[in-house]
Design a protein that fits this description.
The protein is mainly alpha-helical and 72 residues long. It has a single domain, classed as Nuclear Transport Factor 2, Chain: A (Roll). The chain has three helices and two strands; from the N terminus they run H-H-E-E-H. A hairpin with a 6-residue loop joins strand 1 and strand 2. It is flat, with a radius of gyration of 15 Å. The termini are far apart.
């Protein structure tokens, strides 16, 4: 493993864990304030961590509701 890869691997692991646990605050901590998001559903463009976080919160809520309704 290269020095660069060993330096970045912990960040990738933390981001993957944030994604798996739906930890939005941790996930957003990996983004710069001026990040841009492109989505497949309208509105198609979100700029900045506030707009992006708002959209991700909506997605997380939908996934959680879907997960709950799938439980027997």
């Amino acid at each position: 493993m290269s020095i660069e890869e060993s330096a970045i691997r912990p960040s990738w692991r933390a981001a993957a864990q944030a994604h798996e646990t739906k930890d939005l605050d941790l996930l957003m901590s990996f983004h710069t304030p001026d990040v841009g998001y492109d989505d497949a559903v309208a509105p198609l463009r979100f700029v900045g961590t506030e707009e992006g976080a708002a959209q991700l919160r909506t997605v997380v809520r939908r996934v959680r509701r879907s997960d709950q309704s799938a439980d027997p």
